[in-house]
Amino acid sequence: MDTSQARELASVDALGQAALAASGELSAVDLLEAAIIRLEAARPLNAVITDLLDRGREQAAALDQSGALRAGDAGPLAGVPFLLKDLGASLAGTPEAMGSRALRDYVAPETSWVVQQYLDAGLVVFGKTNTPEWGNHCTTEPFLFGPTVNPWAPDVTPGGSSGGSAAAVAAGVVPAASGGDGTGSIRVPAACCGLVGLKPRRGRSSFAPDGGQGMEGLVNGHALTRTVRDSAALLDVIAGSAVGDPYAVPAPPTPFLAAIAEPPAATRILTTTQSPFPGPPTHPEVVAAVDAVAHTLDGLGHRIDSGAPTFDPDVVADAIAVLHTVSNAQLHAFGRSVLGREPEEDDFEPSSWVMMREGFETTGVAYAEAIGAVHAQTRRFAAGMSGHDVLLVPTLLTPPPPYGSLNQPRGTTRAFFDVEFATTGWTTMANVTGWAAISLPLGVTATGLPIGVQLMAQDEGILLQLAAQLETATPWSQRRPVGWVG
Hints:
This protein is of the alpha/beta class. Helices cover 40% and strands 13% of the residues.
């Protein structure tokens, strides 16, 4: 595999690369070696913090030797190089620091159910991507590994907490990489890096073997991609439940990849550009991007109404803060088990330490009340969507923000999230409600930075169909960041 051919492959999405392997034009080893060439070219981005090149080569060689690729028995994504976020995507026997100095020597003892689905689908894992400590920040600049550089501009964040995955995909290292989303951690980096970022609905996939849910249902995992069809295909891979899961959702009537081949029926869409949380007004370029998408959807035959569901932003922010304090108290306990000693303040980042200290004092009653508040505000939100199928809103209320703006301690956990929500706006409500949400790279600033536009619905099917329709109507595939390695 020469460098020129490796760079040409950067433009081919995951399904396209798998088709090359299935046809015999290229092998899984060829695809992987091309991705490694691109990875080396992208090292200055600091997107990949753990190399698993030898395990990837072994897996690719085994795929080629099995003959399954060319026999057509390996699935639509077999042979595609793939990266795992270094949080929530455990691979047995490999490092998993989760962005934390306390966990720098931790090695995952088992493979998560979702990662096993990736491996069973023939995705070739050859590295792990950078993430902020414990996924706490909507930016990726952990003290342990240092910041990931946004391929679009070195002075703005790639977002977080799936920022390493987003940067690797945006730069063309891989066509797709895994992510997780607790208050926007797939959609925020998708918006910052000009990608497709889908947060599935609650219960779409499993947290097995070591969990039944993530942060009382706030967290869901999926991937960052450059095309809608890749997002749909990867969702088909992880959709389902493991034996003994406490929650699950019905399987889709049609596989997601097949569903996007059909245009959506006329859809009732509610839209607003205003933030539901206190803060500065939405940036004019973001407003213009959302309005343009609404106009496009109207022209495609959908009904567009101005407005938004209501909820109590103060109650939501309080509940999110409480759930994160308890989650970070768990990080402290996990750090103790890994270190074999009581963790000290220097083992964690300042903002995490604030959350931990509050978590130690959070009562069981306060935690239960936070869960109840989330459920009550979900019902209020859902009632406000009565008569509409989809909510159209900004992903971020601003263009990609600078480094250092979304990871600083603010004295209290609530104050930390007040600052975050003034930038992220609607993203957290998809996590609170458990609704599916997708960010699409449908806008561009005057300086060429990507702007994400977000669609929310109770189910992923309608979102993927609308996304595919918008991808055709307003193509983004030819936009390339300055850090593109193709």
